[in-house]
Amino acid sequence: MIRTRFAPSPTGYLHVGSLRTALYAFIVAKQNGGDFLLRVEDTDRERFVEGSIENLLRSLDWAGINPDEGVQFDLNKKVVQAGDKGPYIQSERLDVYHKYVDELLEKGHAYYCFCSKERLDEVRKIQELNKQATGYDGHCRNISLAEAKKKIETGEKAVVRMKMSKEGTTKFTDLIRGTVEFENKLVDDQVILKSDGFPTYHLAVVVDDHLMEITHAIRGEEWLPSTPKHLELYKMFGWTPPQFAHLPLLLNPDRSKLSKRQGDVAVEDYIKKGYLPEAMLNFVAFLGWNPGDEREIFSLEELVKEFSLEKVNKAGGVFNLEKLDWYNREYLKKMDDEELVLRCKSLLEEKYKISIFHFPISKVIALEKERATTLVELVDNLRFIFEDMEYDGKILVWKKSDAVKTKQNLANLSDFLANLSDFSKENLQSKVGEWVKENNLTNGDVLWPMRVALAGQENSPGPFEIADVLGKEKSLERIKVAINKLS
Questions:
Q1: What is the mean pLDDT of the segment spanning 103-124?
Q2: Residue 323 lies in a domain
Q3: For position 450, what pLDDT does the model report?
Q4: Residues 368 and 224 grouped into a single domain
Q5: Rounded distance, CA 453 to CA 148, Å?
Q6: SS (H, E, C) the chain
Q7: Is residue 122 part of a domain?
Q8: pTM here?
Q9: Does residue 64 surpass a pLDDT of 70?
């Protein structure tokens, strides 16, 4: 069975690049009838941020990427661990890691290192001055296990390093990059257990992926240089490694690495701005992958059918916010009005202190549906419906008219509308259109000031749509205010 995992560190928020990693891992599992796991890699205690696990789960839940196993929310949104291969939070697995570190030490595949930070810094400086590859120089590599244990008994602090083979090369097939090869002599003896008793990523990821029976390790390309170390650990333990797929970096438009300095990188930021999960998933799926044809709109179900790691590019994917905006507008336009009401419900109620059940909300939403980029913008743009806008009376005047004519036209229009019983968009469009012709007026003479009067702003939907939503009483009230502004 195919088993993939997403293994974030709880350092504050879910990065959009991590969302892409989770999405690809989820898709690979689902398209093969497999399982998608969520494991929390929290062994770097200095970077741990309280509440991060909940934040990660909320973001994934919003995106519809829900784990089959591992760390997840229960029905009450409480963090739980589900599955028979846990714990799935690494800080709860220290006894497991210590067992395997002891095995490596006993077999001579690892050793205690007593080098101080000052010595390591000095070694690095010398290597840099001599233009050598930087890395550990093997100073403690030949200290016997018995001697090392005596030093530890006397209180000396130590880390444990793996004893990396220095001969030959490590070659493997990456599902995205093809054959990849590293010279072993350039790979240093990685620390696998820190002096605080916590494992490093390198040991924990190998042990956990093996014990959790992960078949495909999908991760960012920053881990590509570490893969020889991981494969060496698999060899030391006598385990079969998973297949690896290293995803390209996400880049800013200037081709620099995507960072918070140049814009939002947290999924949470885009949720708050009112982006749709469907649009975000579609967008990040295309950051490095495409189906090989002109299609751009894919649901999650369609991605599961069409996606393949072999079609993921090796080059970095550019995070183009304009493209994300395009996706979001497309999804907004296509979304059913009733569904869109549900998506906007909390935003509307919070911003305008209303109950959506007291308004023809579907009609309200439809007014700005095709003019907005995000849910937040959509709700903001509807302010003129729920609040009387302040505006300069000058904007009521059509460019080919004047204030006197505009005032008279609005007064006559108001009298005409007062006698209409059917205030639907269709009836208004028909009756007002006839009235304009009968009075030898132009649409600009009547519809421009009518629309501005109803909306209180220059740019807005059409006057009949607005009047339909506002209703007869409110529409006449706003036209009266407009007439007074022209006095």
A1: 96
A2: no
A3: 97
A4: no
A5: 85
A6: CCEEEECCCCCCCCEHHHHHHHHHHHHHHHCCCCEEEECECCCCHHHCCCCHHHHHHHHHHHHCCCCCEEEEECCCCCEEEECCCCCCEHHHCHHHHHHHHHHHHHCCCEEEECCCHHHHHHHHHHHHHCCCCCCCCCCCCCCCHHHHHHHHHCCCCCEEEECCCCCCEEEEEECCCEEEEEEHHHCCCCEEECCCCCECHHHHHHHHHHHCCCCEEEEEHHHHHHHHHHHHHHHHHCCCCCEEEEECCEECCCCCECCHHHCCCEHHHHHHCCCCHHHHHHHHHCCCECCCCCCCCCCHHHHHHHCCHHHECCCCEECCHHHHHHHHHHHHHHCCHHHHHHHHHHHHHHHHCCCHHHCCHHHHHHHHCCCCCCHHHHHHHCHHHHCCCCCCHHHHCCCCCCHHHHHHHHHHHHHHHHCCCCCCHHHHHHHHHHHHHHCCCCHHHHHHHHHHHHHCCCCCCCHHHHHHHHCHHHHHHHHHHHHHHCC
A7: yes
A8: 0.91
A9: yes
**Do residue 240 and residue 123 come from a single domain?**
yes
In the chain, the number of structural domains is 4
Nearest to 274 by CA among 372, 386, 165: 372
| pLDDT tens per residue, range 183-232 | 999 999 999 999 999 999 999 999 999 999 999 999 999 999 999 999 99
CATH code where residue 448 lies? 1.10.10.350
Residues annotated as part of the active site: 260
CA distance 61 to 277: 10
In a domain, 478, yes or no: yes
What confidence score (pLDDT) does residue 260 get? 65
Per-residue model confidence as pLDDT tens digits over 154-169: 999 999 999 999 999 9
Task: State the pLDDT at residue 69.
Answer: 98
| Domain containing residue 416 | 393-485
On whether both 341 and 405 belong to a single domain, the answer is: no
Q: What is the mean pLDDT of the chain?
A: 94
